[in-house]
Design a protein that fits this description.
- There is one protein chain.
- This protein is 45% helix and 21% strand.
- It has helices at residues 56-63, 119-132, 138-169, 173-200, 207-210, 221-230, 236-255, 264-295, 323-326; strands at residues 3-7, 13-18, 21-28, 31-38, 46-53, 67-70, 73-83, 86-95, 98-107, 134-135.
- The strands form two sheets. A seven-stranded antiparallel sheet has the order 3-4-5-9-8-7-6, sandwiched between helices. A three-stranded antiparallel sheet has the order 1-2-10.
- Helix 6 (221-230) packs antiparallel against helix 7.
- The longest helix is centred in the middle third of the chain and has 32 residues, at 138-169.
Length: 336
Amino acid sequence: MNTKIFIDDKGTFEVQVLTTWKYSLEEENGVCVHTFSEYEVWKPDAFQISIQKSNEDIKKKFDSMESIEINGIKCLVLPEGGFEGFRVKCWMIFIDDEAIMFTLTHSIKPDEDMEPKPLEEKLDEARQAIGSFKLIKPEHSEPRLNSYRFDMFLQGVAATAYMVNKAVENHAFIEATCLFASQIDGLLRIGIILQKQIANKNRVIEKEWIYQGLSDRKKSEKDIYKEAKELGILDDTTFDKLYNLLYNDRNRVIHRFIISEITLAEIENIAYEYYQMQQKITSIVHDIETKQIELGVGMTIDTSNETVEKNNINLVSPTDFIRGKIGKQNYFEKKD
């Protein structure tokens, strides 16, 4: 069972869910409902989490209900519900002054050819998620959320390595060009973080460089290149080359393949130029990481008084680490 850690956007809770589950958020009667479901539309089952304030009266109301123990936590089993074609199984746990409800909505008569997973396996998945659930204390919310987002960022960098290899194998050079550009973007963001930590003599990972929510201000590639140049990460020659690749070559690849003379063979050469630039930026970022180690500052250092996560910024081969970023696991399967 391949799982991943999920933390909601407000840093309220942490839960371990399947790597094949996508997330959505809705509000019902003033309560936020966090929904996890499969990517395939023919798999309509859903696992949901909702959190409400609790008190002793509410606890007494539910205290007489059947309970089970999941991962050392008393979990109340609520009466089942349902609607046309579906059943809803419900559980509740109490943590401090919060009441957390979990529901699993599943089809009564699923198409076994389309969805062969038995109900008991779905229940095991739901119980595993419930057993992993943790509320995050408000004072720990921001650092935990920032660490989580940085992990997701590194997953994205690693996932592009897997995807670009597949793109090159399949002669999908338009895709490879876009992926190399994304890798350069990600590597420069890491370089900016490392360089700022050296300048400020701290280990702060600024959110604006690793995460962009729906309402967050956009950081364009132009912004990233300029910031990297101002920090001394990029020299004038490399900076100008990146601009030329971005605004001339890549625009031709993406926007003018149909309406100009450009060919896939020419795009292969552009993809190779991007690859060379990605290798150069990787080397630059590695040098900044080495400088941090030499100076004893930033997130690369280790101390004897605390646990420091070792974040490998190199592009890696596909492992369980990136499965959550891929989503559909059949992308890993070899086809004859």
